[in-house]
Specification:
This protein has a domain of 114 residues: 3-Layer(bab) Sandwich (minor pseudopilin epsh fold). The chain is 28% helix and 23% strand. β7 and β8 form a beta hairpin. The chain is elongated, with a radius of gyration of 23 Å.
Length: 186
């Protein structure tokens, strides 16, 4: 009598087929989870930068600018590509020799677009020495490239620099703006 110490080809093939089916069924959930994680990290980073800008302006007694930045040394590009936070002593939205860069956010968004919408279409935020925004308020809106409205997010920044996260108040998995309307991407 011989003892069997392995799997037959049929058993091994069936096991691999079942494993492939399980992976195929879980893959869409993993992709969605990864996108939600990316959006959550981006939101937390933006909140950190707005709060840091506000407190840095108050602590330094200087104007602090938060703007989109491709390279971390000048205000240019889109918010999706990154951002820069710096003490802007003359409020010209440029890093001059007497200014100090406080924080740089590199591109951390790969599946969507991030926009800042504010009065006057200003693509920057400036905080005065008491920590209030200079004549502006607005919102950061993230839109996923897939068009999935459940991945749309919005951070609202009021004139005193307080950040509020848009919530899903009606339970449909789509977040609403301050007027109770679903956040839409353009």
């Amino acid at each position: 009598m011989r003892s069997n110490q392995g799997f037959s080809l049929v058993e091994l093939t069936l096991t691999l087929v079942m494993l492939g089916i399980l992976i195929a069924l879980s893959l869409p959930n993993l992709t969605s989870l990864r996108k939600q994680n990316e959006v959550s990290i981006m939101q937390k980073t933006l909140i950190l930068h707005v709060n840091l800008a506000k407190s840095s302006a108050a602590n330094s007694g200087q104007i602090v600018t938060l703007c989109p930045s491709i390279n971390g040394s000048e205000c240019a590009g889109s918010w999706t590509q990154g951002s820069m936070l710096f003490i802007d002593k003359n409020a010209n939205r440029r890093v001059d020799p007497e200014d100090r860069i406080l924080r740089v956010r590199s591109q951390d968004i790969s599946h969507g677009e991030l926009e800042w919408r504010a009065f006057g279409r200003r693509q920057y935020l400036q905080f005065n020495p008491i920590g209030y925004l200079l004549h502006q308020n607005g919102n950061f809106t993230y839109c996923d490239n897939s068009g999935d409205p459940t991945l749309t997010r919005q951070l609202v920044v009021n004139s005193v620099g307080r950040v509020r996260i848009a919530l899903d108040n009606d339970g449909d998995d789509i977040r609403e703006d301050s007027r109770g309307r679903a956040i839409r991407c353009s």
